[in-house]
Amino acid sequence: MTTRSLILWPRATAKAKLTKAKLSQSQLITKLTWAANIAALSGLLAFASPAMAKGPVEIRVAIKRNAAEINIGSSVDAIVQNSAGKTIGEIKGMNGFVASRQNGQVALDQWRSGVITVQPKDANGVVWIGDRWYRGRVVIVPTGDGLTAVNWVDVEQYLYSVLGGEMNGSWHQEALKAQAVAARTYALHKQEKSRNSIYDVVDTTSSQVYRGIQDESTGTQLAVNATKGQVLTYNNRLILAAFHSSAGGQTDNVEEVWVQPLPYLRSVPDFDQDAPVFRWDKSFSQAEISSLIGCKGGTVQSFVPVSRTTGQRVKLMDVKTNRGTCRMEGEAIQAKLKLRSSKFNIIAQPQTVTAADGKSTSKIMNFGVSGSGFGHGLGLSQYGALGMAKKGYNYQQIVAHYYVNTQLTVIAPAS
């Protein structure tokens, strides 16, 4: 794996606005919570903020979407900007505000604008969005019938939290570093695809788990700082760095699970044998599984695999009932039964039950599901990365294993 330099131009600064409101009782309680927590946060912020290069790469994260109102604040005094980027006021630190929508604009206290931005005046200040602290600044935009709050944050600082949301911050550093490289690549790849959107990613597993300061730790900050700016490329382009919890022994070729074939998301052995989700079981009564599957309104008799992926995930499975057979995709069955992955077997378990009188008997049918792994099984396996790290592999070797024939590249922010 070679190391190259790739220039990424920073995105234009967003222009946005806020609205101020009287503190309700719940907000007063929230304000007290801020005061209790901010002292603990200050030490973490000081540790995690090395000197940043000029023009840091920012990521735009949707925190609240189409909300009627959004609680906003700052740990320190902050400026309020309008749509043109002009400063129109300031808010005091440790005060609660409510952004609302009025006549198609964002309203905050006496301020009104098409978009409002709140940015702490101190580099170590953090913003309050909804019910959590976040680094960077917050941009409030009218969307649909409500408002969307977007956190504009340096991608490295964003990753401090993502690592804690996606992994355990106390895990082996080499596993955390591998996750940092994958998460950074994933975020910037998503950003490339979202040029015309008001945000790049969301804060849930639909993108990457991001819950602000609360998920940061010394472990996540060390891993991000140690891999600063490093991403994975293939033919000089950012890759789709998919990752998941556990593949159950073998990852998959992407075209067997999704549609588009990608040369770097190939089936490789997983090192996740120690994962708590490596093997799992679940059971259903016949009535329960018949209701959940919903095949022709019939009673399920058996499940017969038709085809599987290289990693042994179910592609197609025949569900046989007393009213006929339904051919279903493995992911559809996974969703209906709320299974951890599509790597499973379902076995009919007929039983004879003796009545309380000890004489009469009846037959019942249950179904046992035995499965492996957690997630889609593509790209980096988080428990597999941990397993490799414990065996002595470094993060470069880990990402090279899960992302085949990729290059570790260093992004250089434009000055």
Care to describe what's here?
The protein has 415 residues and is α+β, with helices and mostly antiparallel strands. Among the domains are: 3-155, no CATH class; 280-371, no CATH class. The chain is 25% helix and 34% strand. The strands form six sheets. The protein has a seven-stranded mixed β-sheet with strand order 5-4-9-12-13-2-14. Strands 8-7-6-3-10-11 form a six-stranded antiparallel β-sheet, with no helix packed on it. Strands 1-25-15-16 form a four-stranded mixed β-sheet. α2 (155-166) packs across α3 (173-192) and α3 (173-192) packs antiparallel against α8. The chain is globular. The model is unreliable at 1-54 (pLDDT under 50).
How far apart are the first and last residues' alpha carbons, in Å? 27 Å
Structure classification: alpha+beta
Low-confidence stretches: 1-54
Mean pLDDT across all amino acids: 88
Indicate the proportion of strand residues. 25-35%
| Widest sheet: strand ordering | 5-4-9-12-13-2-14
User: Strand tally, please?
Assistant: 25
The biggest beta sheet reads: 7 strands, mixed
**Tally of alpha and pi helices:** 9
Assign an overall shape.
Answer: globular
Radius of gyration: 25 Å
Helical residue percent? 10-25%
